[in-house]
Design brief:
single chain; alpha+beta; Rhinovirus 14, subunit 4; 3-stranded mixed sheet; 2 helices; about 25% helix
Length: about 70
């Protein structure tokens, strides 16, 4: 391999918003992520609803009105 053309491969820490910490190696350094395998709905089997602007409430009220 040629000398001096490869990036530095150092230890880094990846921190999730849920508090999970993973120690690994990377060329980027320390990272913060919003979601990981400990809190992702695909891996946990629990679905999280993110209510953006009351859309979930609006949908539920429409559903109840339709059922009546």
């Amino acid at each position: 391999m040629k000398e001096g053309i490869h990036p530095k491969y150092t230890d880094c820490t990846i921190t999730c918003a849920c508090g999970e910490v993973v120690h690994t190696r990377s060329t980027k350094g320390n990272m913060r992520v919003e979601i990981c395998s400990k809190c992702h709905p695909f891996f946990t089997g629990k679905q999280k609803f993110v209510d953006s602007g009351g859309r979930v409430d609006k949908f539920n009220s429409r559903l109840k009105a339709k059922a009546k």
